[in-house]
Design a protein that fits this description.
It contains nine helices and eight strands. It is globular and about 50 Å long. It is an alpha/beta fold and 223 residues long. The N and C termini lie far apart (41 Å). Helix content is 45%, strand content 19%.
């Protein structure tokens, strides 16, 4: 009964807001809702994913497809921060559970966004999604400039033009962990596709004397 009343108030508030800031559901186009109740219900049925990355268990809140992919792209490319809560709720719950299961003193580290992405968006998607899921701001791994980045800019080439082996080689050494020596670490990111970046995060933690006990992502490409 309480949940029904809460939803009724939320629907009324969103309806009023929609009069001034017209939106449509990104899932089905229903007016005046960023994500309608029917599409939220569909999202809730989406299964979690588990895989190994660099020998560490990775838990993903969702598979990166269909509605989940649309929501994340809208958030990251169009700045639709109003879509963060539906994704962040499950993501945050998984992170809280992992931290609770880990030994005392566990460190929460996030994979930082690219500098270009951070400048374009003006916010960090992982930090936002964690906040919507009730998780305090995590510490961040640090980006180390890639030695061939200047050559890439001059030639106009980038990750898309590289082979899989070249992408791995170009990623190794691009992240650095600080203050994790002798500590257990949970690493978080938004989307894991090939797993190359998350594997680099694990390597960076190990190189700094830490131990990654779990990796968690909002979404993962099933593989």
């Amino acid at each position: 009964m309480g949940d029904d009343r809460e939803h009724a108030w939320q629907d009324a508030a969103l309806a009023v807001l929609g009069l001034f800031l017209p939106v449509a559901c990104v899932g089905c186009g229903t007016p005046d809702r960023a994500l309608c109740r029917a599409c939220r219900a569909v999202l809730d049925t989406q299964g979690r994913r588990v895989r190994l990355v660099a020998g560490v268990r990775l838990d993903a809140a969702f598979e990166y497809e269909c509605l989940v992919r649309t929501l994340l792209l809208e958030l990251k490319l169009r700045g639709r921060v109003d879509l963060a809560r539906p994704l962040g709720s499950r993501f945050g719950a998984m992170v809280r559970a992992a931290l609770a299961e880990a030994p005392p003193g566990v460190v929460l580290l996030r994979v930082p966004p690219s500098r270009r992405g951070a400048r374009r968006r003006g916010f960090d998607p992982v930090v936002l999604l964690l906040a919507r899921g009730g998780v305090r701001r995590p510490r961040s791994l640090r980006r180390v400039p890639s030695p061939d980045r200047g050559a890439e800019r001059e030639s106009g080439s980038g990750q898309k033009e590289r082979s899989a082996v070249e992408r791995v080689a170009a990623t190794v050494g691009t992240l650095r962990a600080v203050g994790v020596a002798g500590r257990d670490v949970v690493v978080v990111d938004d989307v894991v596709t090939t797993g190359v970046t998350m594997a680099e995060a694990v390597r960076a933690v190990h190189a700094a004397g830490g131990r990654v006990v779990r990796c968690i992502a909002v979404a993962s490409v099933d593989g």
